[in-house]
Amino acid sequence: MSFDFKFTLLTRNNYQSPSIVALELLINSKQFLESKRERGCVTRSSEYCRVIKFHKYHGAGNDFILIDDRAGTFPAQSFDLVARMCDRHFGIGADGLMLLREAEGVDFEMIYYNSDGQFSSMCGNGGRCITRFAADLGIIENKALFTAVDGAHHATVNKDGSISLEMIDVIEVESLDDGALLLDTGSPHYVLLTERLDDKDMQTEGRRIRYNERFKAEGVNVNLVEWKDGCLHIRTYERGVEDETLACGTGVTAAAIAAQVWGLSESPVKVKAVGGDLSVTFSVENNAYSKIWKTGPAVFVFKGSFEV
Q1: 51-167+300-307: CATH, from 3.40.50.300, 3.10.310.10, 2.40.50.200, 3.40.50.1110
Q2: 3 pLDDT above the threshold of 80
Q3: Maximum Cα–Cα distance across the chain
Q4: Catalytic residue among 41, 49, 129, 248
Q5: Nearest alpha carbon to residue 127 among 142, 108, 103, 141
Q6: CATH code for residues 174-295
Q7: Please, where are the H alpha helices in the chain?
Q8: Catalytic residue among 86, 123, 129, 231
Q9: Is 49 a catalytic site residue?
Q10: Whole-prediction pTM value?
Q11: Catalytic annotation present for 248
């Protein structure tokens, strides 16, 4: 975006006050306001706005920046801004960022970005956190219907404070040559049963699979799981974050279905992520999975303002 500038130097000879030297800057006001919004100004009423109000939540350690954008003023295409806000060293720090927006026929719309600043596929823990956020804002009481990138979702705020989220149906589970399963629970997931899970180098293992010949173009989320003490333990490397996260909701869902495929557990499946415990229930018929609900924590951490 370009601006036209006009400078007029007013000196002792053409200005009555000999002590003042003034500089006049003429800018197209419409372009100026638009540029402010692109750089993160979320209040249309002030051209000097330089802050974005946010709330921070986590779901089993999977943490997110939540923004109430019902006014539709957040610069949705400012991917660099989103990445900067999610940066753990120079920003707020988060695995992702979500906008809560108004949408016709539902309680709200969920717009999700990964920490790299790019739009992403469905985030299950994010879905639970934005439901809690909507309840905290007074938009819903104990039930929600919202839309996300993969379609409509129902959610429930439980009496114990946990959130239950309905996931999309899974109609295909692919078996891979290495013994892993590949399935889409709103995001694509690779799930591999292993031993000595705690000893795994998830950065190395995750990158090896995420960037292999089959997956490198679109990426895949990599889940290593171990059945131990009557529940499924999981660690996840997330694409877009490009690192291990403390929990991944769609990954937990994929792992629970994988446990049923492998004969380890029927519904409900208890899953222990690095950041906390979750559970998944589902119905299965003709190798297709429906009525999938994932339950786990969704916790408010803090709120603040981010200068841009």
Answers
A1: 3.10.310.10
A2: no
A3: 91
A4: 248
A5: 108
A6: 3.10.310.10
A7: 29-38, 79-86, 124-136, 202-210, 249-261
A8: 123
A9: no
A10: 0.82
A11: yes
